[in-house]
Automatic annotation (TrEMBL), chains A, B:
Coiled coil: none annotated. The keyword Transmembrane helix does not apply. This is Acetylserotonin O-methyltransferase. It comes from the Eukaryota. Pathway: Aromatic compound metabolism; melatonin biosynthesis; melatonin from serotonin: step 1/2. Its EC number is 2.1.1.4. GO terms for biological process: melatonin biosynthetic process; methylation. PANTHER family: O-METHYLTRANSFERASE CICE, PUTATIVE (AFU_ORTHOLOGUE AFUA_4G14580)-RELATED.
Length: 237, 237
């Protein structure tokens, strides 16, 4: 199962060990708005300019930018002996907040909520329960009460969920011929991310999203516009 | 710079995003003693047995074990329709605490200290300073005052540092012919991890480790035995 090379030097384990450093580097560049700024200016700019525009330390920003270059999230070129940074095409498409395919909301959710909760994975395995109490001081037994603990948090979670369907919704809907189903119920359908792919792929299908009342109300307000025909909601618990 | 495949589906970004889940899965299996128990029993055992022996929930342990199988840190085989788990050779060598090549101390340091500090990477970049205050409530300006905040914490850090040399010390020492240097000073030489590789590779060399008084005292007590000739210490600050 293990090659002698792996036994000699545990590269895979060291990669696993550093996984969180990679995650947080990408998350932080997103959260600080690095990709947004580089998209806005539309030309390579120096670390000092980026630090100044985003109100960060120069030293910290230089290190972050170079780590992003190492991860191929940014490109760098020398001008007057100073590194000037710009987005890669993938970053422009997936990490700029205003892009229709942005992962921004998913990334910030992972960074601010999931990462923190996973610090308590040993406790979660011991106790067999979620760690919202240790992570966020919320002792609710219902995990969705914890996730939806405020309107702001609900919105963050809904954007996070919506992003997942932006990435893989079309592939999932088109993997099978679902045209025989004229009336589809999406239990826990949230923001209608999947429903939108459904109605745009199958012209005859109507989707009814069933979710908690507060989710339905927010989804109607923020995610499903009036123009989106054939998507209906049903509140429940 | 980016392939069209990458533009179509951002696999690399999704891998980066999940990096911390991978880290914490491996860290947690180490911290809970999964690899140690499997090494001790020397035969594949069921999740229920592992959960019972390690005082964890069965559901949580089953998920953790299957994640470890996915990461190729464990093997699984079916006996009477129930999964029975065992260590891979790499896990036996590098993840069992008692192994001479164990990464255990580095992993627990990463899990309990570094992971937590890196939650505050955006703040670190903004402020250009370490985040021991947010992470551990320590407002010291000197980072080593924070790292060595108690004897227990110092010991954890020293074991962590020592592990690094266990993995790559020999390669570094042998990368150049250093035999012309008979007297070597290792500034911040910590536990003598590098020094040991030096004296075992070069028979004529004497190494003097210079470090903080408290580090030197602990290193002498726990890491450098009397038998290790040609390693000396010098306290300083």
């Amino acid at each position: 199962m293990c090659s002698s090379e792996e036994l000699e030097y545990p590269q895979k384990l060291l990669d696993y060990q550093c996984g969180f450093l990679v995650s947080k580097t990408m998350f932080t560049a997103c959260e600080l708005g690095v990709f947004d700024l580089l998209h806005e200016v539309q030309e390579p700019i120096a670390a000092t300019t980026i630090a100044s525009r985003l109100s960060t330390s120069v030293d910290g920003m230089e290190r972050l930018l170079d780590a992003c270059v190492g991860l191929k999230l940014l490109k760098v070129e020398l001008k007057n002996n100073e590194g000037h940074y710009s987005n890669t095409d993938v970053s422009t498409l997936y990490l700029v907040k205003s892009s229709p395919k942005t992962l921004y909301h998913m990334i910030t959710y992972y960074s601010q909520t999931t990462y923190k909760l996973w610090h308590f994975l040993p406790e979660a395995i011991r106790e067999g329960k979620s760690q919202y109490e240790r992570g966020f001081g919320i002792s609710s037994k219902e995990v969705f009460e914890a996730i939806y603990r405020s309107e702001e948090e609900m919105l963050k979670f809904l954007y996070h969920m919506d992003t997942i369907w932006t990435i893989c919704g079309k592939d999932i809907i088109q993997a099978f011929d679902l045209s025989v189903f004229c009336s589809v119920y999406d239990l826990g359908g949230c923001t209608g991310g999947l429903a939108k792919h459904f109605v745009s792929t199958y012209n005859e299908t109507t989707v009814t999203i069933m979710d908690l009342p507060s989710v339905v109300q927010t989804a109607k307000k923020k995610f499903v516009t009036d123009e989106e025909q054939r998507i209906h909601f049903l509140e429940g618990a």
